[in-house]
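REQUEST FORM: STRUCTURE PREDICTION
Request ID: SP-0412
Submitted by: Lab K.M.
Chain count: 1
Length (residues): 204
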Amino acid sequence: MLRHVTGYLNLATIFTYIDLLDIISKNIYMKKILLILTLILIASCVNAQTLTGGVTYTTQDARIELQNTRPPAIDFLLIQDNFTDKNHPENYSQLLKGVTELKDRTLGIFSDNTYAVKYKNNPKYIWYYDSKGTLIYTEEQTSSQYPYKTYKYTPDGELVNMTLRVSKDETFIFSQYGQLLGHWVGQNCYDENGNIVMTRKISE
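STATUS: Completed
RESULT:
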């Protein structure tokens, strides 16, 4: 469940009150009442506006959101087209030099020597390869705007894990069965009981 508070300043409503003030200007008592109502309206709208954009998830909210909106399996033909990294020699060479941004793609390398490729013309998918350039996972990203979800699959279409990226600093990670694997908040990763199980260094 996604909970948020939104508000906006309804200028048309305020102008309506002002028009009414002019119409009943002879009635001082009513004018004062409407003026007070107008000020209350403005104050409440401004207060609501300060809360706009506050999006929060509990662990159960995140779990339900991911399980209820799981997309269909990735097209097998798309998997087939990317089963082998066509740019493996160049990609791996660039990664060993510390280069992660190329003209048409973004690269990432991991401590086990596997690496990932994200093409800029189709950023919905991230392709994970072993050190020889053979596909091991495909990750589908539902959006480029927070909050968004990702689902990681094997080449055979089996779900490996799913994540909810609430913001740059907060991520929920679940197994394919809905078990919480980790909840990252800033530099700390928490388990279901709120215990810190891992830490990371994040860039500002």
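NOTES: The CA atoms of residues 112 and 131 lie 9 Å apart.
Reviewed by: T.R.
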